[in-house]
């Protein structure tokens, strides 16, 4: 690999033997380097292959302002998150997450707290990502001696969520999360019960709800003709859960212009009914 341009001591653009362009990050990798010099591969921390010039420009603009030790810390955070989530994260997350943490540290140093746009219910919607976000804050504290506010757990968790989806912008993940939160609040208000958010039935409901909302945002539908006859029976048998789903329908149609199949409604009713049944069983046991 040969250097095309050194942007600072820690960032260079380069080209490999096949002519592929890339941005390389590493401690001292750009020191005293000029176009045509060989890249010192022992100093490489991360390589980003560029799909287009505009992508390279955006990466360099962000990376130039981030200290190399923070990039290395972020890289370790990603490795920890991948272990928690048991999945590979998009390599581009290193840039967006390092950028976020960089500004989070700056805000903390000036006593500025950015309120989370979403509540702490995120820990139940994305439990593994929340766990990884919490570990990230602990690691930042131990390595950089910076105590970030607890709200940052949610922001970092959402970066992990976004990295596992096809969404290009974290604003899409925020929209998905807001819809989930609003639907869950409808369920709580309509059923007028205190839901045990650690219960298996609730966790399964949230997982189902997450993929249900993703399907609606992607304009996809789950069609299962085999359940349609059962649905007529379910409407009567599980009346409370059915009317709760009608409230959800109203919210999603009026606010987000979502209309979906009876099959989707059927499975929502079943999940809500399972939560109700579990709660009634617990109340019966307590009595």
Question: Which percent range describes the beta-strand content?
Answer: 5-15%
Largest sheet: 4 strands, antiparallel
> What's the alpha carbon Rg, rounded to whole Å?
24 Å
Instruction: Say which CATH homologous superfamily of the largest domain is assigned.
Output: PRD domain
Shape: elongated
Arrangement of strands in the largest sheet: 1-2-3-4
Q: What is the CATH third-level topology name of the largest domain?
A: PTS-regulatory domain, PRD
Gap between N and C termini: 73 Å
What is the overall number of helices? 11
The proportion of residues forming helix, as a percent range, comes to 55-70%
Give the SSE order as H and E letters: EEEEHHHHHHHHHHH
DSSP strand tally: 4
CATH hierarchy: architecture of the largest domain: Orthogonal Bundle
Round the mean pLDDT to the nearest integer and report it: 84
Residue ranges: pLDDT <50 for 5 or more in a row? 282-287
Q: Number of domains in the coordinates? A: 3
Going by helix content, strand content and strand pairing, the class is: alpha+beta
Overall CATH class of the largest domain: Mainly Alpha
Can you walk through the features of this model?
Strand 1 and strand 2 form a beta hairpin. The protein folds into three domains: 2-59, CAT RNA-binding domain (Transcription Regulation, Sacy, Chain A), CATH 2.30.24.10; 68-164, PRD domain (PTS-regulatory domain, PRD, Orthogonal Bundle); 179-286, PTS-regulatory domain, PRD. The protein is 61% helix and 7% strand. The chain has helices at residues 53-63, 68-85, 93-109, 122-125, 127-144, 151-163, 170-191, 200-217, 228-237, 239-256, 262-286, and strands at 2-8, 11-15, 21-25, 46-49. The model is unreliable at 282-287 (pLDDT under 50). With 287 residues, it is α+β, with helices and mostly antiparallel strands. Helix 8 runs antiparallel to helix 11. The protein has a four-stranded antiparallel beta sheet, with helices on one face. It has eleven helices and four strands. This is Transcriptional antiterminator, BglG family. Keywords: Repeat. InterPro entries: BglG_antiterminators, CAT_RNA-bd_dom, CAT_RNA-bd_dom_sf, PRD, PRD_sf. One of its GO terms (molecular function) is RNA binding. Pfam families: CAT_RBD, PRD.
């Amino acid at each position: 690999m040969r250097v095309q341009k050194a942007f600072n001591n820690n960032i260079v653009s380069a080209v490999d033997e096949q002519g592929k362009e890339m941005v390389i990050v590493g401690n001292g990798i750009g020191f005293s380097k000029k176009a045509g010099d060989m890249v010192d591969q022992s100093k490489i921390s991360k390589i980003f292959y560029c799909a287009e010039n505009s992508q390279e420009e955006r990466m360099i603009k962000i990376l130039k302002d981030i200290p190399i030790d923070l990039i290395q810390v972020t890289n370790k955070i990603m490795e920890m998150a991948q272990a928690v989530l048991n999945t590979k994260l998009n390599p581009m997350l290193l840039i967006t997450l390092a950028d976020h943490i960089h500004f989070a540290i700056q805000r903390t140093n000036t006593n500025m707290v950015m309120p989370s746009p979403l509540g702490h219910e995120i820990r139940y919607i994305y439990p593994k990502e929340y766990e990884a976000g919490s570990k990230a804050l602990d690691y930042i504290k131990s390595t950089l001696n910076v105590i970030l506010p607890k709200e940052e757990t949610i922001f970092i968790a959402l970066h992990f969520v976004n990295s596992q989806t096809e969404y290009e912008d974290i604003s899409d993940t925020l929209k998905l999360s807001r819809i989930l939160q609003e639907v869950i609040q409808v369920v709580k208000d309509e059923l007028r019960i205190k839901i045990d958010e650690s219960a298996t039935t609730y966790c399964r409901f949230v997982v189902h709800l997450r993929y249900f909302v993703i399907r609606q945002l992607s304009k996809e539908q789950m069609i299962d003709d085999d359940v349609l006859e059962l649905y007529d029976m379910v409407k009567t048998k599980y009346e409370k859960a059915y009317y709760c789903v009608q409230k959800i329908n109203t919210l999603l149609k009026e606010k987000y212009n979502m209309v979906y199949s009876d099959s989707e409604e059927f499975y929502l009713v079943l999940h809500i009914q399972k939560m109700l049944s579990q709660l009634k069983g617990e109340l019966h046991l307590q009595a």
